[in-house]
Amino acid sequence: MNDAAHDLHAPHFIGIGGAGMSGLAKILAVRGASVSGSDSKESETVLALRALGATVHVGHAAEHVPDGASSIVVSSAIRTDNPELAAARERGIPVVHRSDALAALMGGRRALAVAGTHGKTTTTSMLAVALGELGLDPSYAIGGDLDAPGSNAHHGAGEIFVAEADESDRSFHKYAPEVAIVLNVELDHHANYASIDEIYESFETFVGRIVPGGTLVVSADHDGARELTARVAGREGLNVVTVGAAEDADLRVLSVVAHGMTSEVTVLLDGAELTFTVSVPGRHYAHNAVAALAAGVALGVPAADLAKALGAYTGVRRRLQLKGEAGGVQVIDSYAHHPTEMTADLEAIREATEGRVLVVFQPHLFSRTQQLAEEMGAALALADTSVVLDIYPAREDPIPGVTSELIIDAARRAGADVTAEHDFAAAPALLAGLARPGDLLLTMGAGDVTNLGPEILRHLANVASNV
Question: Does residue 3 belong to any structural domain of this protein?
Fold first, then answer.
């Protein structure tokens, strides 16, 4: 096991159940490390890690840090007053950021890093599935599960390592990829970035980490990505491949034809047309697949083979994931929490259904709501009916005057039919009462709104049985 400058033979993960942390813990456990950790609650992910031999405690306490811990792995979400972190510092145990641990795991592999304000998880997953379909057995670390708890990471025998590169806390500056994808560049993560210029500077630093002779795959359609391309143009030793529908794109998207929950994509590559199927709906997912295609080609994978293999990707948990159907109503889960993501998912669903679209939206973070409430409200106007829950705080403390009412007011100004629901437990019954056969209902947001799906389905079934 190559741990680079960090001793990861016996790592202790604080917050081991998180999407990014659990993936690293899984890879290290498979590589033979003695993995331990803690999380705030039991989960399917925690159970999957225990099945791999990891010792996982529920709750945070100093005594959970084992005597033999070689390092403490943390993410930016861990507060400085965490008792396990405090105990580690008192005992002189090295503290390693999640991004440093991931960089160590990528050492000695052909690294492919996927960055962007949104779309990272989907694109990384598409590459992981397609490369695996071709027998290349890549290692990968993804911010979401492909199909089951614990499927967000894999230690492969192949030479390629595909990783999601997180810009939110600048941790993607730690990686040195052979190929990097930048899907889009927008102002987000307002607690860490004060302006769009800071965002550009951060992405420029990331691009500067690409190894000499490596490739940047970047969107030709997104204004922020085009600005980034202009800023890095002419850098010595950097190959730039632009992708998108724009006429000047190096890999040009000629068409995206919707067929229900799938899309047929035609691209122009090296003067020849290539058509393939993407097994998820929506133009933005099709464009993610094209970026994945360009990145794989940059690594030397034959384009026709990779295009066909991309059709094997059928989605990631929480990325327009069908949770079930009851009473003639389909319930789909969406992780979208930024206005651009919300708009993209709602437009994709509009293309995939002829029925009404209902949304229950849970805003994520006070800082994001403060900055983007107007845009979130405008996005919700794309639905026929919306229910907005209270803000999911995650790692943040409340900001005076910042509530979900800011989004609700904006949505109403945009002409949306929107209802506030401050009682999380009451939301399933409310939504079941609003829905009717033929509707498609989205649970949307990055917080625990995902847990409402099964309850909504139960209420829908009860309504149907009483008709």
Answer: no
Query: For this structure, is 351 an active site residue?
Result: no
Residue 75, SS3 per DSSP: coil
The answer to whether position 209 is within a domain reads yes
DSSP 3-state of 84:
helix
Scanning 176-222, the segments in alpha helix (DSSP H) are 196-208
* Structure tokens belonging to residue 197: 């210029």
Q: Is the pLDDT of residue 3 over 70?
A: no
**Annotated active-site residue in 26, 45, 84, 121:** 121
CATH number where 226 lies: 3.40.1190.10
Is 385 among the residues known to form the active site? no
Q: What is the rounded CA–CA span in Å between residue 184 and residue 24?
A: 25
For the segment 277-300, the average pLDDT, to the nearest whole number, is 92
**Does residue 173 sit in the same domain as residue 224?**
yes
Residues 50, 156, single domain; the answer is: no
Whole domain around residue 419: which residue ranges? Answer: 319-465
- Residue 404: which of 418, 414, 384 has the closest Cα? 418
Of 282, 310, 338, the position where a domain reaches its end is 310
The yes-or-no verdict on residue 1 having pLDDT over 50 is no
pLDDT of residue 319: 66
Of 164, 167, 186, 341, which is the active-site residue? 164
**Could you say which of 26, 120, 174, 323 is catalytic?**
120
**Does the residue 174 lie in any domain?**
yes
- For residues 188 and 118, membership in a common domain is answered with yes
CB 445 within 8 A of CB 337: yes
Question: Is 178 marked active-site?
Answer: no
Residue 349 near residue 261, CB atoms below 8 Å: no
- At which residue do the structure tokens 């295609």 appear? 293
Same domain, 17 and 162: no
